[in-house]
Structures
1.
Amino acid sequence: MNQSGESLRDRKKRQTRTALERATVRLAAERGYDNVTVEEIAAEADVSVRTFFNYFASKDEALIGADPEAGPRMAERILAFPGDVTPFDAYRRSVLAEITDELNNARDLWLLRKDVVMQRPDLLVRAFANSAESEQLLASAVAARAGLPESHLYPRLLVSAGSAAFRCAVTRWAADDSLALGDVVGEALDLFGAGLAHVPPYHHEGGTS
Amino acid sequence: MNQSGESLRDRKKRQTRTALERATVRLAAERGYDNVTVEEIAAEADVSVRTFFNYFASKDEALIGADPEAGPRMAERILAFPGDVTPFDAYRRSVLAEITDELNNARDLWLLRKDVVMQRPDLLVRAFANSAESEQLLASAVAARAGLPESHLYPRLLVSAGSAAFRCAVTRWAADDSLALGDVVGEALDLFGAGLAHVPPYHHEGGTS
DNA sequence: CTGCAAACTTGCAGTGACTGCAAAAAAGTC
DNA sequence: GACTTTTTTGCAGTCACTGCAAGTTTGCAG
């Protein structure tokens, strides 16, 4: 019964996973991240506490909705671009594509996460701390594309810059409703691309930049 | 009795603080970070567990030796440079100065921390997660110097890039004994300064870069 | 549809980080 | 030496997280 690629089991697993994720985000946004216990989250999703930890290694991970496939997916994307695309561009496009997908799939969740992040900005950093494994994958992909050894600083810096861009962008996005998250991330990556030695122009009071 | 600027009390506090820090790092390097309990650390430093938590908010903080004065100190340095120094250079120099000082004061600790980080790279990221407050200070200083509003992406990105540079540099430093940490951080910051769109040259097997 | 194996869920008991509180012990002051 | 302010400590409690050993559900073959 897996011609559709997804058995009953798989479907149920996906369901509990997203139920837990949504419960976590919803409750955290509603009454503050650390006023919510895993027990409450599990109850909300109608599973046992132990099951929560079968799906997520930590409360943090559930909040951010850590997707174990995101790393491999992005790495593949990076390598799939035609040869004349620079490593930076490949990485940049890959990140933006991922964000677009994510927002299309769960924009509502990100709106709630925004509230949580506004209360506790450190959560975003902490959540990214656990993705060292994925980052390693991305760094390898970048290294391959750039013709550099894995030990080189550049690939790791580029990937770190990516998550920094994302984190800063979320903060900025949270503060200004009128912006699209993808655009802000793109802008941040551009600053990294152009070099931080170059201070970007800023027109006081003149939003046509 | 505080003409020397430091009373008995202050001296003792400093002593317990560094004793706890050293105990944490030493034990963690010796037998692995999570095979060490706070109870053991406290015992090693001859204080109670409760006292440990009077000095450090978490085990992570003790491992990294989080210095609450580092943020203000660096911010001050950034603002103190003459006016013709660019924001990037001011930040860069400030970071390198801090690292130099730190290594001069506690090089042995950093050598041990290196071992711990090699076992668990995520600890470094997590440790930096709690410094959101300091980062805000630095970002403000950079913003002031760059003539940008605090809400602008640039200052935050520069500061994030700084910690990314530091984290990547430590990793690289841990893997190659022959390098000086300060140099690697400087190199990383230079890559950020020049722009990541530019892939650095790499001479296969020719260390004259 | 039955019986078996693999995957998933659950409860339970335990560890360890971390907190608030109130009392003991120093340290500084006069 | 009494008095105030800090610092240390013990204690009780909460909560995240883990390993283990059932119990339950799903997949599959006969």
2.
Amino acid sequence: MTRNKLRAAAMRLFGEKGYDGTALSEIAKEVGVKTPAIYAFYENKEDLFMTVFREAMESYNTYIQELSEEQNMTSARDSLYRVLSRQYEFYQKCPEESVFVLRYMVFPPAFLKETIEEAFLQSDELLTKAIEELIVHGMETEAIRDQPVQPLVDSFLNVMDGLSMQYFYYTSREIYERKLNNAFETYWNGVRSNYN
Amino acid sequence: MTRNKLRAAAMRLFGEKGYDGTALSEIAKEVGVKTPAIYAFYENKEDLFMTVFREAMESYNTYIQELSEEQNMTSARDSLYRVLSRQYEFYQKCPEESVFVLRYMVFPPAFLKETIEEAFLQSDELLTKAIEELIVHGMETEAIRDQPVQPLVDSFLNVMDGLSMQYFYYTSREIYERKLNNAFETYWNGVRSNYN
Amino acid sequence: MTRNKLRAAAMRLFGEKGYDGTALSEIAKEVGVKTPAIYAFYENKEDLFMTVFREAMESYNTYIQELSEEQNMTSARDSLYRVLSRQYEFYQKCPEESVFVLRYMVFPPAFLKETIEEAFLQSDELLTKAIEELIVHGMETEAIRDQPVQPLVDSFLNVMDGLSMQYFYYTSREIYERKLNNAFETYWNGVRSNYN
Amino acid sequence: MTRNKLRAAAMRLFGEKGYDGTALSEIAKEVGVKTPAIYAFYENKEDLFMTVFREAMESYNTYIQELSEEQNMTSARDSLYRVLSRQYEFYQKCPEESVFVLRYMVFPPAFLKETIEEAFLQSDELLTKAIEELIVHGMETEAIRDQPVQPLVDSFLNVMDGLSMQYFYYTSREIYERKLNNAFETYWNGVRSNYN
DNA sequence: TATGAATGAGGATTCATTCAT
DNA sequence: AATGAATGAATCCTCATTCAT
């Protein structure tokens, strides 16, 4: 119980204030426990952080994995849009995990640099593959103009990354949703075939 | 002299390791001076940080401002592309400033949250206006299909933000350049008129 | 069972790393038990230490006591030599007890200073008496030159103390045995009568 | 100034209470300074300890070195006796250094084991050589019976080691001096020639 | 302008100990 | 007899900051 509450508090605080900006005492206090209690569950600050990091990554990867699984029946347009809105959903449902992942993906603490690079590459590959399938499927059904696939994947990922950043500095829901839709629409215009 | 060296070192270190992760002693050491020397030039850590922050923002804003100024003669396509490549140039020429701006734009330390939000909004407005002009110009010359402007601006900014993030986690130059070109091409495809 | 294993582990670790340098958790771990289990058998760290201390002293004293008991039949030379070799035997058979006794005899933790001084004096007296008897016996049989007894006792104890220290910093068996024999030989030369 | 006072306080406290039993705060308090001030002069606790250790060793070695230098004119008996009384002098003049050296020679903290063994061997060799010269000199002048040298060196060192230990647990000056004289007398009886 | 000395505040971590189970 | 959870006290150490020089 305490173990999990600690994990949750750590996720939130590390995400919000950074590794160095978060004192173990704050995490403990948030859980209603004294600092040394943390050491009953985690070896040290790094260990707590790593545990949280792994959990956040897993949570994020799970969400990505599920993309490939539900793609099937829907149109390419819908399923690509679905990717963006699922990402948005994830940010809303798991704001702590999201901030955490984003923060440490881009600005890992020194001791995590390598681990994170690996985790990132792995995650990136998964996502790339999922998007690729959707796009290929779109070409097969002629929703997307026939053309080299990689550029379309690249630019879709670019849209996603852009939306990631923007989620965190446009706090207004409406503005974000507008941006999401507009970004997607332009992307779709750029890739779709002229038949529909 | 020392004052400037301190600013530069602070820029680099605050950017790389974060506000809390950077000790004044590290900054001093990088400059070859003892910690208390810092206090001859800056009131305290926050002051040093703020100075650096203002400088980075100014550097970034200058680069944006210049966008509007040189837009004129070239085609809309070229000038939009120019925006992306200038951003890229900025990242390459001023990597310290870039990391710094990106980091504190997205993850400001608590005491800076408000200041940064203002600075961000201001900067964002500048950029938005500049892009808007380019796009309107593009429509006037019929390079861009006639349509509401805001969505095109939104999605261009989205492309830019995406490229920002990607610059920091795709370390390979080639990959990044490919991604930049692909993102732009898709964007352009999505907005251009069918005449060219 | 556990009680004894704890005692043994404590003996070894307190002897090797000192009172302050040994954490209860180490002792527990060596026994394969969690720290609080110690409190089922011992009141606290001091109590455990004292128990161990008493045991080590008893073990040491027993060995000394036995000296007097077997002295009888043999020649003075042999029985004095026997004292040194029995001390050596003790070090080899009970290395933990030996280190422990030596360490806390010379460097008792503050809270034990008085207790240990008493224990030491008592032990010293026992030993002194035993040696004295051997020497007197040696004079009676004219193996040892007739002369005041105390100086001979003093210097024999000095030889013993010297060998104690040396045992702990000359790790090589051979060197130690050589030193033992040489020390004894010189001593014997210094005290023996000229008849043999 | 503070640096030296710290060294002195550390010498005393480390010697008296052991490495783990001595808190930096105690050392600081003895000097009339707050704990962090220590870090202006020493890297950390180990560094302070090592500095003190080196100083104590040097002090001890110097004393040994001087033995060889003044040996010349005096009789072998006098110069050997001189060694013991100089050792005694050293204990009295530099009680802190003495306790320190003895304690860590016999019971080094784990992180010092190797360093100390080296230091010890080196010191031991110096001393051995010095004693050897005195004894050889004694044989040349026929004060000492002609015989193999090593045993006489061994047993003299044994006497010295014995007196080391005894100095620390016989607190009475008179008793110690008696023991010193008696030990020496017996030793000398054991080695001297019969001519004098 | 720069430094050495010093400090208060705070941070991670260890440890002996307690208590409910 | 043994453990998991928790804590108070203390330890080493870092850091921003001050001040006299």
3.
Amino acid sequence: MTADRIGADGADGEPAGPRAADASRASIRAVANLAGVSPSTVSRALNSPELVNAETRRRVLECADRLGYQPNRAAQSLVLGRTRNVGLIVPDIANPFYAPFIKGVEAYFRDTEFAVFLADTDEDTATEVRLAEAMIERVDGLILCAPRMSGTRLRAVAAKTAVVLANRTSRNAPSVLLDFEPGMDQAVAHVHALGHRRCAYLAGPANSWSNKQRRRLLGAACAERGIELADLGPYEPRFTGGYRAADEVLAAGVSAAFAYNDLVALGVLSRLTARGVQVPGELSIVGFDDVPMASMTNPPLTTVAMPVNALSRAAAATMHSTLDPGAPKAPPLPPVSELATRLLIRGTTGPV
Amino acid sequence: MTADRIGADGADGEPAGPRAADASRASIRAVANLAGVSPSTVSRALNSPELVNAETRRRVLECADRLGYQPNRAAQSLVLGRTRNVGLIVPDIANPFYAPFIKGVEAYFRDTEFAVFLADTDEDTATEVRLAEAMIERVDGLILCAPRMSGTRLRAVAAKTAVVLANRTSRNAPSVLLDFEPGMDQAVAHVHALGHRRCAYLAGPANSWSNKQRRRLLGAACAERGIELADLGPYEPRFTGGYRAADEVLAAGVSAAFAYNDLVALGVLSRLTARGVQVPGELSIVGFDDVPMASMTNPPLTTVAMPVNALSRAAAATMHSTLDPGAPKAPPLPPVSELATRLLIRGTTGPV
DNA sequence: GAGGATTATGAAAACGTTTGCGGAACAGTG
DNA sequence: CACTGTTCCGCAAACGTTTTCATAATCCTC
């Protein structure tokens, strides 16, 4: 029977009144004393309910609740060897392309035992590696979004912690990717259909994987259709980067421009409008990303949309399943078709 | 002398060759063995150099380096009782007003021993408290940016961890604030000077501190100048929230509108432009925040600018100094004048 | 050169958990 | 009743640090 133990309840340790919880100071030992059991039993009651008597468990839980007991995470991490944190590093929080990605990852982990560390590299490679180093000590895994660090550096990081890559490939870590090809192909076909034969690519950061990717696919699609492609840039991948691009693209004598992303496309559009240049009359513009603002300008931006939400959840799920074998396995990567990009034709493209 | 110890160097423990670091597996004990000292000495060499012999220290450091030793943070946290993490909770990462704030805080802590946990509540109060609860266990302090949680809840949080508030006051925690008054006053004076006598306030979230604050000051400034103020909303504090606001403000028969923030102002502007309404000809618009996009629209937005960067650094510094007594004390709060807002007159305000 | 002050180091306790091992109580089986 | 198996629980070790305390070695001073 457990009756005697119940009887012992109020006898030893703390007074049994409904005292206010003592501000995160209650240890597992305090709970154990109050409940008249050993710390082991408390731990088991909390973590493996099937190992303790139902009545004992009820009592332990009640005592834990009364004391406002919260297990000390440092102690748990120490013995378990896991932090139950994951890190997320993105190039720029302020870039509206990454916001949905971040939200997707955070939303995914909100319902798990994991908390996420988010950091912003300010588009700077050195900061990126410093942040990665700092995070490694505190997390079980790292989601790297469009990382710029070198391959060898990436390998070093992956050697120390679980890594999943978004928008970047590597032999050393799993990655989730967008399939740029469909959207890019549609964009070039669209521009071609409108009669454009001389176009420009407004490049983003030279060491960016997506920049290379976009340039490559664009080159191929243009070549295939006999479109001449001029390379401009690189430009800062921001709105203001588009200002400079606008002036240079005008001077380049092309009739259409593909921007590295929506921000520079929007910057180009703004600058052109300010200079009194007609869009799409004198120049057609195609963006990349479909950030929220893209649909809100005048004219609204023709752009290539990405299923960022699917991408972020895929990244999070991949990480989760490598960290916690009990996690919903799901297909480690959704079928590529889910991550296909597609062209959104709006107002900034027109006949030459 | 220490010569004998040097001689002992390669004799015991690990082979002395430049082995590759063993993937974060090296403990302080391994370093101690390799260096031929006790773990205590290694700890001291790392944390309180003045307590160990210079030569010993050099040797320890070299061994630590060779093994790629990284102290285990969980163990440190456990004994020290501090995590050396701080949490930062904001309503919405995608809101361009918060991005600079976040970056400011992250930049501040980048050069300290602290790492920052960032989370986004999606403007949802319940999520906010859940995130706060989850973070409390993992951080030494929490920076709450424009929190919406109730006062009692806030007190409960502040009882468990150090808290600093941004854009919200409370008896239970220090806060850093923007002084809305100057900017607001300038805005009303500006609109009054242009001849407007019937204006509207496009409200933000009803439970938001800044919303109340703005409404109050606006009401006072308008009353003082004999301007009639209509209350519209609340609206979602986003671009799309402005769409609905635009239609309602047109129906309200006013000649000028103060938006809760730039996003809704921009939304209004966009919707109005789409409906063919002249801005500022038929309606003048004043925003709040001076987000980057505000200067890039056509016409550019008249808005009240905030020294967000100063605000975020003040918040971070306040937190830092309460956490680490050794931190640069600085004035706990910069003089209010530094945090004053001011009106930026651009293109969306004109004579009635 | 004896004594006290100073410096450098090691041993061990402590932080708060989890978990392997073993033992006690009890149930079932022959 | 003896034996085996099961259920429940406590003891103690372990995780990797930091820090107190004690001790040995060295230095200084008269």
4.
Amino acid sequence: MEDSERPKKQKELIEHIGRQNEREGFQPVPARIMGLLMVMDKEEYTFEEIVEEMQISKSSVSTALKNLEIRGIIEYITYPGDRKRYFRFVSGEIDGIVNDMEAKMMKSLETIKQIIELKKDPNSRNAMFLKTISAGMEFFIQKLDELKIEYKKNK
Amino acid sequence: MEDSERPKKQKELIEHIGRQNEREGFQPVPARIMGLLMVMDKEEYTFEEIVEEMQISKSSVSTALKNLEIRGIIEYITYPGDRKRYFRFVSGEIDGIVNDMEAKMMKSLETIKQIIELKKDPNSRNAMFLKTISAGMEFFIQKLDELKIEYKKNK
DNA sequence: TTTTTAGTTCGCAACTTTCCGAACTAATTT
DNA sequence: AAATTAGTTCGGAAAGTTGCGAACTAAAAA
């Protein structure tokens, strides 16, 4: 890869990541800032640099950075004698990703159990089918826990 | 549970499921219709019954049902001598849920690999950290495949 | 053939989201 | 003390989304 085409491709990838993150519920601006901090060779950006690089207003950047920080997706560091904050992506662990998946599944499972509980006929089509799904989810959740332990050991 | 309070609780659960589905990217009306078809004791609804039960306009119900059907979330059946379509929830399998999870993970993995490929310095902080995540994802995706087979066998 | 049933399609009003500029604050420099 | 830096907060304009009613269609019934 030639150095000249790298930045252009990186910008395209940021846009792609932006749209992907939007599908996960992020707003357009935070979604793209996440991309910026992951993709570019420069891995620490100041507030002002983000404003210039992304051509987004200071107010939008301010709001976006606060949100991303609260969510634990980005963090900032400061250097002695420099008032600026340097923002960077938080190096999450695979555990976190799997935990999120598991948490979502557990929430669905909770809801499914509530549906079953409220069914007048526990042998109705939906009740039967939801019971099967419920059992499957429990199986996978348990196995995911085991896998997390297995992965941690081997690493 | 007394029969008198069941419908009320079911309605509340539909609203809860509606909001949960909205977080998954569904629009309010389809999100709640999904809930209706899963929760209520009556498990097959005609177009008109949905309009009355949910107090939503015919046009909105029409659009919502079409979308849900295209996505494979609901289906309809007809009975001989009856022009109405009876809508019901599609009894998906746990496999489908796990596949969706896996597909999402694989998409993320693809993106992460692209980021790594575009990094000038393959030993940068983000490059290193993304490589770790990447390896972890590959591990979990493979194990999920194995688990799907294991589950199918035991069932 | 006309009417009714069972929906679909379209344009628009209402609502929500997103983003911006202007005005502000609080710390640091001049 | 005044000006600059590094942001934050707020109100509103612009854009996007949602859901409705009205007008439509196609099949069946009268």
